[in-house]
Specification:
Length: about 230
């Protein structure tokens, strides 16, 4: 197999509808897509992966329900992807982003910025400590709310393995009314966007564990964001 045949075509049935008037045209991968960045461990420190502390003043931490958020990153052949850069961003516990453009009337948490990053280990595993985000209103759509979610950017071993997505939480009634979540028309694919309670990753007396696995390509790919 030549390098340019390394990645199979995406299966678009698991991804959100594009809204384009013409069908999408698959292009052959170029050399610059199948080669790409290689991230060393130095790209992210231990503190970068702890959102409860990475923006907090000394001796303080973010307010909210702590959680361990971990998962495996695999490719289309279920092989682990070590050395992938995982970046996440989210609201604080009250549903407010640390961004001037966020007009949501919700309290600021001075000890929480809402971004973190880490690099997957040899088994393709990533791990964050964070707090559960809040829902926020989308007033341009009327009286609508986005369910709690965490944004992900994953950059694997090449740019063909780049994925932008969001994870959600079990049992959130706002998902039924969410235009982003519902844009993934395939129900099984939508369910892959919901984190699973994973007590084996809980830290006793400190934080409950949740698992969100990411498949970069292929039939079981994690749906990407529209
Ligand atoms: Fe968001």
């Amino acid at each position: 197999m030549s390098t340019l045949e390394h990645y199979k075509k995406r299966d678009w049935s698991v991804h959100p509808v594009s809204g384009a008037s013409q069908p999408l045209v698959p292009l052959k991968h170029t050399l610059s897509e199948v080669t790409g960045p290689v991230f060393g461990k130095k790209v992210a420190t231990k503190l970068d992966a702890d959102l409860t502390k990475n923006a907090a003043k000394k001796g303080q931490e973010a307010i909210g329900e702590r959680m361990i958020l971990t998962g495996l990153v695999t490719d289309e052949n279920s092989r682990p992807v070590p050395g992938a850069l995982i970046e996440i961003w989210q609201t604080n516990a009250a549903g407010l982003y640390s961004h001037k453009g966020d007009q949501h009337d919700a309290p600021v948490d001075p000890n929480f910025y809402g971004t973190g990053k880490c690099v997957t280990d040899e088994e393709g595993r990533y791990r964050f400590i964070t707090i559960r985000p809040g829902a926020y209103p989308i007033t341009r759509l009327g009286n609508r709310w986005r369910p709690a979610h965490i944004h992900y950017s994953i950059t694997g071993g090449s740019f063909a393995q780049r994925l932008i997505t969001q994870c959600y939480f079990p049992g959130d009634p706002l998902q039924a009314d969410d235009f982003v979540f519902q844009a993934v028309e395939n129900k099984a694919a939508r369910e892959r966007l919901i984190v699973k309670y994973a007590p084996e990753h809980s830290v006793k007396g400190y934080a409950a564990g949740y698992q969100f696995d990411i498949v970069l390509r292929g039939r079981n790919a994690t749906p990407m964001e529209r």
